[in-house]
Write a structure and sequence with these properties.
The protein has 265 residues and is α/β, with parallel strands linked by helices. The chain is 35% helix and 23% strand.
């Protein structure tokens, strides 16, 4: 086993570990989402998507990913940011891996960009933060399904303020780089309460108001708020394309998790 290849940690739990099952599941999500598409709509430069098990959040994530298909050959690099669920640390964490592996194959990392980022004070190489983290991993098969060949810049976000995250996005804002922010919304409220809370969070995202989003509103608030601060500084536009929770997809309604999909253009 090549120690430079980051192995899947949640294949077989959050999504199928068998490519023969995973590919058609992704395609079904994307086709269903694609039925709602406006063919004239511009392709997003950045997206915010959820990261739960696919039966719960896959249809919501697909509503954003389906909009990338027209640009499948445009994006050659993906900057992927998601929150740390297991390892507490300050700042943002890079990986020493050369590739990230999924059941659909290997994705090469943009080592030159990662090493450049490691010169910033808020960025540290911390493989421990990546080893078991699902917030980044669950996005990879979707990316492999909608894009042609690309290199990956994966960052797990710990305790980092919006400016620290925005500074990194600034370095990757070009026509060939897609920005992906991984975040769920509220956690473990009853269905009606979650709807109310997540609607308020969605309005804050669309209004580019990072100061209005707390940890209870979105587990990925740190990367989300960094993107919103960047978007506000650059006169960008955010729009919600799907907002549901686990009570709508595959779970009970007494304790739900909220999922939203957003486009930034």
């Amino acid at each position: 086993m090549n120690p430079q290849i980051r192995q899947p940690a949640v294949a077989g739990m959050f999504y199928p570990a068998d490519a023969a099952r995973l590919r058609p599941m992704l395609e079904e999500f994307l086709q269903q989402a694609g039925q709602q598409l406006d063919e004239e709509a511009p392709v997003p430069r950045a997206i915010i998507v959820p990261h739960a098990g696919y039966v719960y959040s896959g249809p919501v994530a697909a509503s954003a990913y389906a909009r990338l298909r027209p640009a499948h050959a445009r994006y050659k690099r993906v900057l992927l940011l998601g929150p740390s669920h297991r390892v507490p640390f300050r700042g943002l964490a890079t990986s020493s891996a050369s590739h990230f592996l999924t059941p659909l194959g290997q994705i090469p990392l943009d080592r030159a960009s990662l090493e450049r980022l490691e010169t910033l004070p808020q960025v540290t190489r911390l493989d421990q933060a990546h080893a078991m983290e699902h917030s980044l991993e669950v996005q990879l098969p979707f990316l492999q399904s909608v894009l042609d060949e690309f290199v990956l810049v994966p960052l797990v976000v710990g305790d980092a303020d919006p400016h620290e995250v925005s500074e990194i996005i600034e370095q990757f804002w070009d026509d060939q780089t897609l920005i992906v922010i991984s975040s769920d919304l509220s956690h473990y409220h009853d269905y009606a309460t979650a709807q109310q809370l997540d609607t308020a969070t969605s309005r804050a995202i669309e209004a580019l108001r990072p100061e209005s989003i707390g940890y209870g509103d979105a587990c990925g608030r740190n990367p989300v708020n960094g993107l919103l601060q960047f978007a506000r500084a650059h006169d960008l536009h955010a729009s919600m394309v799907d907002l549901r929770n686990s009570g709508d997809t595959a779970g009970p309604r007494d304790q739900v998790v909220g999922y939203g999909a957003y486009l930034i253009q």
